[in-house]
């Protein structure tokens, strides 16, 4: 593991990263999802894709990478782009899971690998709608501090700046970004995914003109079980 300090728009970040197969010329960057870190991506893909250099990094605010700011997805993409430029990495592909898939899409790589990525707005369950309504009501009454009671378990341990970041990124519609991506897309999905539905994956496939689509009988972290098969398809599909 290594740390690289970078500064963007007067904001400083210490980025934790790891490189595998360092002597290989072609690079693949792996980006984790929200609430995750580089270790889960490494756990899945490090045994495979041996002809590629692997770059695993913790995006700011996750794993061992610092973040003291409230960010949005475009800023995350800018941070990752700057990181790659500073270390002089020219990647041939970027693989992104969930939130990481949105960041990967903005980076516009020659080969975009999406793993149950976020970015398609879907209807929220009724209980979620009720929580949002009550939180907004309390805030309008000057009782904003009480809204913490309505936060999901996924976010209740977040710092305030990361909670603000979460609110910035959670309801983004990335349809236009998927449509505008014109290079080589490879989309992989969990058929039992409850975080990003299979129908959302099929919609992204329809939006990205030059893309393939494969699904697997598992949930949001399906790639942990099927990494070998996915890696084989990546090797064959990279252009």
From TrEMBL:
Gene Ontology MF, one: hydrolase activity
Residue intervals of the AB hydrolase-1 domain: 28-107
Keywords tagged on the record: Hydrolase
Source species, domain of life: Bacteria
InterPro entries in alphabetical order: AB_hydrolase_1, AB_hydrolase_fold, AB_hydrolase_sf
Protein name, UniProt field: 2-hydroxy-6-oxohepta-2,4-dienoate hydrolase
Annotated GO CC locations: membrane
Keyword check for Chaperone: no
Signal peptide: none
PANTHER family attached to this UniProt entry: AB HYDROLASE SUPERFAMILY PROTEIN YCLE (PTHR43798:SF31), MONOACYLGLYCEROL LIPASE (PTHR43798)
Organism: Halarcobacter ebronensis
One Pfam family from the record: Abhydrolase_1
